[in-house]
Input
Amino acid sequence: MIADVITIFPDLVESALAAGVVGRARERGVVDLRVRDLRAFTDDRHRTVDDVPYGGGPGMVMKPEPIWRAVEAITAERGPASAVVLMSPQGRTLTHAMADAMSRLDRLVVICGRYEGVDERVTETLVTHEVSIGDYVLTGGELPALVLLDAVTRLVPGVVGDAGSVEIDSFVRGLLDHPHYTRPAEFRGLKVPEVLLSGNHAAIDSWRREQRIRRTCERRPELMAQADLTDEERRAYVARSTTGADDRTEEE
Ligand code: ADE
Output
């Protein structure tokens, strides 16, 4: 996957993309992520990227021309983008399914919005997807772009060493993840659940599955309708939710 990020804070974005799993995937050439300084596409002495809003009102609006030139330059260099994404609180909220779909695209362009927003002509004609990372407003699209690229990059085959760890992640099958423990087996009097020390893999799998379902019911009940459950699991879930029974104390 190739992705180009357009930002007025290239150093911030570059340093974040150099770290950890994403940084290593870039070094290995599994993904090709490049950061573009929006100001390099301005044509005035002050390298202006924003201007006052037509119609008045507070704040500034990002000018269309530098963004347009940046996308044109990227297209000339890389070929046409599969998606031009604008990070904005007005967008559709990012989900695992969106990240998964984007991880299958060849070429992404991600525009980091700033100020009050981006000239609507850019959004209407250049942008194919407007994406929000949640119902809160940040000072700009850089952190959201990093969230998007992190979520997308780790789903590109070969990025995460153990594909199984991506497979069972929260949301992959509509359920939250199970709890994780590492050594020591006892820490300040707190013990790791016995079953995980048993070496009985069937018992461990079934305990983890049960934990995922239980956590999802407790923390995100709205996910249960879409969750990928066996008929038996669904019957048990329905029985539990209609009787209001919580079997937690029996097992823990
Ligand atoms: N820019 C500012 N806030 C944002 C959000 N919540 N998601 C995406 N881009 C943003």
About this structure: The CA atoms of residues 236 and 242 lie 10 Å apart. The mean pLDDT is 94.
